[in-house]
Amino acid sequence: MADFTGITSLEPGYTALVLGASGGIGSAFAEVLGADPRCGEVVRLSRSVDGFDVTDEDSVAGAAARLAGSGGRFDLILCATGALTIDEIGPEKAIKAIRPEAMAAQFAVNAIGPALVLKHFSPLLAGDRRSLLAALSARVGSIGDNRLGGWISYRAAKAALNQIVRTSAIEIARTRQKAVIVSLHPGSVETGLSSAYAKGHDRLPPADSAKLMLSVLDRLEPAQSGGFYAYDGQAIEW
Q: Model confidence at 184, in pLDDT bands (50, 70, 90)?
């Protein structure tokens, strides 16, 4: 793929925040942004390093408050949290495999967690200039694109995430008219999240996926806020 030339639609010296920065894609986001000469600062938060837990509102609210208290304002926020297998329970292959506690865990991590991020971190977006916020979703969260079935809890949680992003974008636009708030599909990526389910599928290196998604985000206009986009720039149906 072509070399990533940096986020050019944000002002030089822009500030970025990566949530879930110790994960495969989150760490790739942080590394790619750290190498962008136009980026002034990359702040990283993760559960393994900072105790940042999207399933715990006190953790999310506390992290946001600490950043706000130190004058934190961000031009770019990336929510790279998420999980496919939780507590050693992977996606269901059939309806009969649904377990309420496993489904609740999927929603806690993949839908409610990003909702809490939007609640507490969107106020930290720069309000007087272009700003970007993206949450990692997945193509399997598309209801219209679902041709195979299965993976009910994960699909449903990601579909809920897309609705959360869509609704939040409408509200955020009222006070931040230059903001772009979207869901992004990273593609099939060489990370531990999908390794057990990727047989026979080509996978992107995490850095390539991160560069492609950042390039897509860089090109989006406020009129496209609230949308769902793939790493190749194509809009994904709901």
A: very high
Rg of the Cα atoms in the chain? 17
Residue 38 · residue 10 · CB < 8 Å:
yes
- State residue 191's pLDDT score: 80
DSSP characters over 65-94: HHHHHTT--BSEEEE----SSBTTB---SS
C-alpha 120/C-alpha 116 separation (Å) is 6
In degrees, to the nearest 5, what angle opens at C-alpha 81 toward C-alphas 77 and 85? Answer: 165
Q: Which residues contact 225 (CB under 8 A, 6 or more apart)?
A: 169, 172, 173, 179, 180, 181, 182
Helix (H, G, I), strand (E, B) or coil at 21: coil
User: How many CB atoms lie under 10 A from the CB of residue 144?
Assistant: 8
How far are the Cα atoms of 124, 161, 195, 228 from residue 149, in angstroms, in the given order? 38, 19, 20, 20
pTM for the whole structure: 0.94
145 Cβ contact list (under 8 Å, min separation 6) = 139, 236, 237
Sign of CA dihedral 109, 170, 186, 135: negative
